[in-house]
Structure formats: C-alpha cells, structure tokens
Amino acid sequence: MDRDRFFALSPELLATTEPDDRFHELSPAWTRCLGWTLDELRARPWIEFVHPDDVAATRALRQADTQPVHFVNRYRHKDGSYRWLSWSGSRMVDGTSYAVARDITEAKRTEEALRESEERYRELFDNAKDLNYTHDFAGNFTAVNNAAERISGYSREEALQMNIAQIVPPEYLDAVLPWVLRAGAETTTATYELEIVAKDGRRVPLEVNSRVIFRAGVPVGVQGIARDLTEQKRIEAALQVQREQLREDVDVTAALARVGSEMITSLATPVVLERLCRLTTEVLPCDASHIYLWQPGEEAYVPMSGHGHTPEQWEAMRVMKFPLALIRPLHEQLEREELVQVRRADARGRRALAMFRPGGTNAIMFVALRRAGELIGVLSASYLSRDESFTPQQLRIARGIAQLGSFALENARLVEELERADSFRSDFVATMSHELRNPLTVIMGYNELLLDGTFGAVSDEQADILRRANKNALELLDLVNATLDLSRFESRQVPLNQEVVAIDTLLDEVGAEMQAVSRKKQLAVQWEVSSEPITLSTDPVKLRMVLKNLIGNAIKFTDEGQITV
What we know:
Layout: H1 2-9, E1 13-17, E2 23-26, H2 29-34, H3 38-42, H4 55-62, E3 69-76, E4 82-91, E5 97-103, H5 105-126, E6 131-135, E7 141-144, H6 146-152, H7 156-159, H8 170-182, E8 189-197, E9 203-215, E10 218-228, H9 230-263, H10 269-283, E11 288-295, E12 300-307, H11 311-318, E13 322-323, H12 324-336, E14 339-343, H13 347-354, E15 363-371, E16 374-383, H14 392-451, H15 460-490, E17 499-502, H16 503-520, E18 524-526, E19 535-538, H17 540-556, E20 562-564
Parallel strand pairs: 18-20
Antiparallel strand pairs: 1-2, 1-5, 3-4, 4-5, 6-7, 6-10, 8-9, 9-10, 11-12, 11-16, 12-13, 14-15, 15-16, 17-19
Helix pairs in contact: 9-10, 9-14, 10-14, 14-15, 16-17
C-alpha cells in the first residue's frame, strides 16, 4: 500500500519493466509528461516510444553489465512531439528493471538556446565588420582587430606602434582627448562621431562607442567599437540630394500648375501675353518680365507685353524694336537652345543688356517661345537691382512657363483664326441669303400676278404649274430665311422677344404647318402632348422655327414609318 501511495504521489517518472520489455508499474506523472494513459503505455513495448535515433543506444544501455545506468533519451508524446528524459535505473537478476526519469526538455531547450547564442556570438565576433581596439590612457593602441586593419590600412604590427593622435585629425582630437583623460574618474562610457585618416590619406567617418576597461576595480585603458559610416554618410548625402530634388520638383510642379490653370482660360493673344509676363514675375520670382515677338517682315523682335516696370518705363520700351542685326548672337543661340542667361557682371552680358537699360537690368534670362519647333518670340525674366544668377530651380520653372506660354499663344492664334473663319462664313451666308431672297421675292411676286390674271388669263394647266413654282419658291425662301436666322443666331445678332406662350397652342400651329410636308411623303406625325396646360416664357417665333426645323429634318430623313414628337 505504501508503495502504491509512493508511486501515486511522486512527481518523478517512476517505472518498472518486465523481461518482455513492457512497462509494469508506472507513476501518474507519466501521463502528465507524455499525454498517454498508463494503460496505453503498458499496452506496447516501451521501445516503441523511444525516438528512432535513440533506440540502439537505449537497448545497449539496458543490456549493460554495469548497474545502475544513467542515460538520456527522447520519448514520444501523444501529440507526436518528443520529450527529453534523464534516466537512472537498475536491472535485477530476474530481468525486472526499476527506473526513475525526469523531464529535462526545458533544460535541453535552454541548453540548446545557450549553445546557439554562444555560436552566434563567436561567429559575430570572428566576422565583425566593425573596428575593435583598445588603447591605454596615453592613447597608445594595445590591440586592434582585422576590421581595424582593413579599414585603416595599417597592419596590426603598425597599429600597435601608433598613438590615436597619429590617425585622428586635430579637429576631432580636441574633443576625444579630454574624455580619454577623464575616463574612469568622471565617466566610464562615451559615444561620439569622428574621422580617422587612413594610411592612404582617406578620411573615414566612424561612430565610436567607448568604455573604460577595469582590472580589479582599477581603470587600465579604453576599449572601443567603431562603425565605418562611409556608406551611411554617402546614403545620407544621396537622400539629402533626393529630398532637395523632390522638394524642388514639388515647387516646380506647383508653380507650373498655377501658370497652367490661369493660362488655360486665356483665349485672346493680348490676355495670354499679359498673364504670361505677370505670372513669370510672380512664380519665379523676379523683378520684371517681357515678351518680344518675332516680326518676319521687319526682321526684328518687338516688345508686345511687360510686367514689373513703371508705365513710363514700359512706354519707353514698347516703342523700341530690336533688329536681328543687333541681337543675332542671342537669336542664333535661342534657335539652338531653350534658355540663355546673362549678367551685367559678365563681359559678354554687358553688351547684351545694354538694350534693356530703360528699366535698369542687371541680370536677365531669355527663354525661347516656339511654334512647331520654330522660334516665334522670347520670354524674358530679369533682376533690376540684384546682380545674381537665376537658380537651377528658376531655370526649370522658366522653361516650363515658356512651353505653357507657347501652347497658349498657339491656342489663341487658332481661336482667332477660327473666329475669323466663322465671321467670314457668317458674312458669306448673310450675303448669299440676301442675294437669293431678293430674286425669289420678285419671282413669287410675278407668279402671284400671273395667277391673278393681271397679265391675262391663264389655263388650268398653266395655273397649276405656276402654283407649283410658287410653292417651291416659297420652300426655297423658307430655307434661305432659316439659313439667315441660323447665321444670326450663331453670331448672337438675333434678339429674343420673350412672352408667355401656351405650348399646346403653339404645337397645334406647328402641326398644322407641317401637315402638308408629312402628307407629301405619306408619313404620320404622332404628337405626345401633356394633358396638363404648360406655359413657357420664350420667343414663340424662334421656338416655332426650331421645332419646324427639327420636324422637317425628321421627315426629310425618314423614308417610311412614323415620327413621334
């Protein structure tokens, strides 16, 4: 009974086995450890629970002559995993074995983690890319690692004969030496950045972490770990350039977006020119801006618009012309390039700026305005009082403004050509309509006189011919009048005489007028009119004409079927 109680209460894995390699007695701790019930453990040979890699060693130890035996192996958990067990056991003469085991799985894991950690530490230390060194309080090196040799260019033998003052530049040495002298007395660690001078003369930026070395509580030197910042500094510099470029791109885009949003609504050439000069001075920014357009007939550039000068200064400039013979070098350069910048401080700039002196100009850039690649003018931006160059960002913005300005000028030119063509067409239609209407009116008048018998009696056949001729002339007159009205509508020359109109009455009148036309083609016109009375404030004559034109077109282009209004 005491034996059973001992087995039941023991936290250890207690077991006895029979000669047939099966468990006989087991403590409940086995179930807690492996998940198997005690009956499941007894039902199979114990060797089936042993990890395959541990079977041979376990069998050999069980048969060993030396007793007791101590060993470690792995037992399979019910979930398929394995637990590490540490055994102590003895085999009796009759073949019965007594054993006690402890679950050392967690200890094994800790041991494995520690082993892996030590291996990683050794690997990191052996293959460290950072400089590791030590020196005494006088600054003499006492140890360096391979990375220190590689980065500094000095061999270990050379380095151990050197002092930190021989590789640290004076501007950094003044900051490092005081800490070295105070080390151990006031502070034991320090982090700082410095540069060293390599054997080949290169400067290598380093981030240094230093600590005081103590022996028996006494500070004896300094240990340092230094990281080569060369690549980091290069990346930081590249990122800084990239950030500045991105910031510039954003500024340029915003400036050109503003120019584009204002220029897109400009359709008249004078407005385009005025806005282009004003926006140039605002978004660059600069003191003044002008546009000079090329006049082929005069072989000269003529000022067309300006911003930034007083009215008196602009009047003095506006009457000037710049013949090609005077500015040929600038003209030829702009034919090849997009932009030319000159300053009064430059020898070649003084002559180029002489012609712009009415407003006082110290620095100016000229940007080409083009149409289909051909130079049509120049946009200028200038400083009146400052004698300095425009920045690369300003040059980018100026090029963009010139491109947008070229597009806007071309659009304005096309709109003006379209308006001229439309005006010519309207004039032609009006003239043609008047020229046709007068003879038609005369023809219809004579037809009426003939039908009335004013010139003598006419036969029925002749009267029928006259009526048909009169009808066709009337249709032609309606067409001429409609064409003339359309021309007037497009040119906004027809006033609207608005009044309150009952739609049902107007539709009845239009239906009656169009009935003869639809009957001629044997087409039915179906009217779908609201039963509710509807009134509109409109010009009834113009609305009637629009409806008649729409219905007439529907009848004209419908061969058979029905037309629904």
